[in-house]
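hiii, so i know i said id send this last week but things got crazy w the move. better late than never?? heres the sequnce for the chain we talked about at the cafe, plus the structure i predicted for it. fair warning i was half asleep when i ran it
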Amino acid sequence: MRMTLHTDYALRMLIYVATRPDKMCTVNEVASAYDLSRNHLLKVAQTLRDLGLVETTRGRSGGIRLAKVPEEIAVGALVRATEEEFLLAECMQAGGRACAISPACRLKGMLHEALGAFLAVLDKYTLADIVENRASLGPLLGIDTAAVHQAKEAKGEQECYRN
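okay and structure toks below
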């Protein structure tokens, strides 16, 4: 099975945004990090917003950030929500061309079972599992993870001083 680019880009965008939890990210930053089309990513960001997975803010200091904690974003649910069809073979299409062996073929049932297994594996994971290695992902995406860590610590220290 091959996922659509929309699903692939949705996963990549979520990974990027989850790698920078304390910062608004722009679509331009994501496009640059992955060398992807900004226009495609704008559509992906809208889909993720509509699904309630990211919050978007317009304007000069706007951008996108996660609307849920990574542990609440299930990979299997995201794939189901962003994929339009799960057609592994022509015989799985409604109204598709009839195969000469359809009345006796067992392949369609096997493909449904394989698809179920594929999705069952994805259902075991969340975005948190994907970005567990943030420190390794950051440099590959052009993110200074040390600066992100320092900002978190500074924010924590500021909160301590307020109390």
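btw The helical segments are 5-19, 27-34, 38-50, 75-82, 107-123, 127-130, 134-140, 145-162. thought thatd interest u
miss u guys!!
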